[in-house]
Design a protein that fits this description.
Blueprint: E1 18-21, E2 24-33, H1 37-54, E3 57-63, H2 66-76, E4 81-85, H3 93-103, E5 108-113, H4 121-125, E6 131-134, H5 139-156, E7 159-164, E8 167-172, E9 176-182, E10 185-190, E11 195-199, H6 202-209, E12 216-220, E13 223-226, E14 230-233, E15 237-240, E16 245-247, H7 253-266
Parallel strand pairs: 2-3, 2-4, 4-5, 5-6
Antiparallel strand pairs: 1-2, 7-8, 9-10, 9-13, 10-11, 12-13, 14-15, 15-16
Helix pairs in contact: 1-5, 2-3
Length: about 270
Amino acid sequence: MVDIRGISHFVPAVISKTYISERGIYMLRIAVCDDIPRYMEELADIIGSWSDVRGIHVQLKKFVSGEDLLFDLECAGDFAAVFMDIELSGIDGTETAVRLRRQSSVVSVVFVSQYENERYLKQMCRIYPFLYMEKPVSRKKAYEVLDQIMEDHKVKYESYFFKYKHRTFNITLGEVLYFASEKRKVRVYLESGREYVFYAKLDVLEDVFSDYSNRFIRIHQSFLVNERHVEEFHPRYVVMRNGEMLPVSRERRMVIGQSCMDMLGRN
């Protein structure tokens, strides 16, 4: 059950791919697609074991063809991750992944193959980013990949909700470009172009988001920006992914410089 008594990481139940509570993700919908039953069952067992060890509830679906997988996607909603054999009968794994990405840009795609096949390399790059595992899949490698997927989705679906004029709004933090202070109110700008306004102080929001997976930087008394959406760092301003230039105050320049170095270090 999600606690909605205060600010929390809350995602509406209509998102079937993953559900998040204040403690993080506790459900992932994962698909395994392989036309060789032995490999499919081996990977399914590893995913089940990872689920038990990590205490993460997984809804696992198994498919022997890309067509079946895509049909299920239409009927039952998105997956958090899909483990895909490259060489499938019918639609191959790379083409299936391309079609998956058209319907869901955030699904994590993991190609699983007995050998690296240069024939599929160009097609695989069409759906970058992706992960890759060799068959037979080792438990250690699979756990590493699943842990990475969990962390990625924690960031992608981390949410924040607020109230304004007796209505409750929920926004996905990964879609937030920045928050801007407007006297007693804060306006939030999303990458979709939508805007929301609510009563709050940037100082309070800055403190609240310090515990979140999405990283927000205070560049100015009036602006709190999402680091993921900063395209360029400059001493006097930052350029956001939508082309907007936001000013950096003099006292914040050292913080911005350190954030830039931190990003370079992580990459």
